[in-house]
Amino acid sequence: MSVKPSDGSSEPRYRSDICYAGGGESRVDRMDPAARSRVFEMLAGRGTDSSQVPLRARFYKLARVAPGQRIVDVGCGTGVDTRALARLAAPGGSVLGVDPSGALIDEARRTTPADLGVRYERAEGEKLPAVDGAFDLAVAITTLSHVADPAPIVREMVRVVRPGGRVALFDHDMGTFVVDAADRDVTRLIFDLYTREVSGMDAGRRLAGLLKTASLGAVEVEPLPLVDMEFSSYFQWVIERYPTRAVEDGALSAEAAEAWRADVRARAAAGRFFGSVVYFAAAATKP
Ligand SMILES: C[S@@+](CC[C@H](N)C(=O)[O-])C[C@H]1O[C@@H](n2cnc3c(N)ncnc32)[C@H](O)[C@@H]1O
Predict the structure, then answer these.
(1) 3-state DSSP call for residue 204?
(2) Quick one: pLDDT at residue 92?
(3) d(Cα 73, Cα 51) in Å, to the nearest integer?
(4) Domain annotation covers residue 259
(5) For a tag on the chain, would you pick the N or C end, based on fewer CB atoms within 10 A?
(6) pLDDT on residue 125
(7) How large is the average pLDDT for residues 258-276?
(8) What is the pLDDT confidence band of residue 15, given thresholds at 50, 70 and 90?
(9) CATH number of the domain that 217 lies in?
């Protein structure tokens, strides 16, 4: 294994595979249909996985989701949480799901029952399609980890929430990722590099600061550790894809990456997979 020396830059050099790249261009929209289906499956599977559902439920509590609320879900993806929020906001509530990807918006519309009171809109960039104070609650759920500059998004969330309303963020921090694998150095290399070089992957540690910078006080934060012993579709996604970044970066040989994956797959096949990452929920009330 060779470790590439740091170039001293603190700016991440890569964008996430499912980011909005600006200029109206979502990377998901440019994928071939097979790759796009895998994104749909990963998001839908992750949001409904038995290890993930209790974490999102804790997040909804911290956000203070309640019946009758008007809620906007920023970066709604396939609408996993948009639908859950609509159920919690009933009766009398309404939820708007917003995403820069037309393909994800189409998938969210396709998979959302008509009677849930959910609307979806494609948004370009961070500008939210709503007037000031239109919502009681704005949430962003694993959205900021795919964004190069999250501050304008959080500012927009604050703008569209009424005084006394809530802004709530939920995201993981890849710097907390652990996987039980034989080669600890390769494990550390893969996740250190991914966290440092792919913009947004350290989002978890930055959520509270983003809310404070947007002039929200009394920020509440809750760490929510996810443990997976089943090798869920989300962890499979991570184990298959993240080493590729280290290979492309020249930090790890393709053979070493494949040996690492094979070891993790073999542990999973033997019923001994163990992976964990900490999510953070952060929320505050608009004065
Ligand atoms: C990991 S997905 C999360 C989707 C959904 N919230 C969930 O948890 O299943 C990240 C989402 O952020 C969206 N996204 C990327 N860049 C964005 C931006 N600048 N503003 C809003 N959403 C963005 C992507 O299109 C994608 O749907």
Answers:
(1) helix
(2) 96
(3) 21
(4) no
(5) C
(6) 79
(7) 98
(8) confident
(9) 3.40.50.150
Q: Which residues line ligand 1 (CB under 6 A)?
A: 18-20, 26, 28, 43, 47, 74-77, 80-81, 99-101, 104, 126, 141-143, 146-147, 153
Quick one: pLDDT at residue 54?
97
- Expressed in angstroms and rounded, the spacing between residue 200 Cα and the centre of ligand 1 is 11
Cα→Cα distances 65→48, 115, 139, 193, Å: 18, 19, 10, 36
Q: What's the one-letter identity of residue 280?
A: F
Beta strands in the chain (DSSP E): 70-74, 94-99, 118-122, 135-141, 161-172, 178-179, 220-228, 275-285
User: Where residue 266 falls among pLDDT bands split at 50, 70, 90?
Assistant: very high
pLDDT category of residue 10 using cuts at 50, 70 and 90: low
3-state secondary structure of 85: helix
Contact 216, 158 (CB under 8 A): yes
In-domain check, residue 192 = no
Residue 70: C-alpha distances to residues 16, 58, 144, 160, 274 (Å): 30, 19, 21, 11, 39
In this prediction the pTM is 0.94
Q: Note whether residue 209 is domain-resident.
A: yes
The domain in which residue 84 lies consists of 27-175+199-227+278-285
CA–centroid distance, 19 to ligand 1, in Å, is 7
Atom of ligand 1 nearest to the CA of 26: 25
* Domains of the chain: total: 1
| pLDDT-based confidence at residue 3 (cuts at 50, 70, 90) | very low
Within-domain flag for 9:
no
Q: How many CA atoms, within 13 angstroms, populate the side-chain half-sphere of residue 130?
A: 29
For ligand 1, atom 4, name the residue with the nearest CA.
77
Distance CA 167, CA 139 (A): 6
C-alpha to C-alpha distance for 54 and 59, rounded to whole angstroms: 9
pLDDT band of 209, cuts 50, 70, 90 = very high
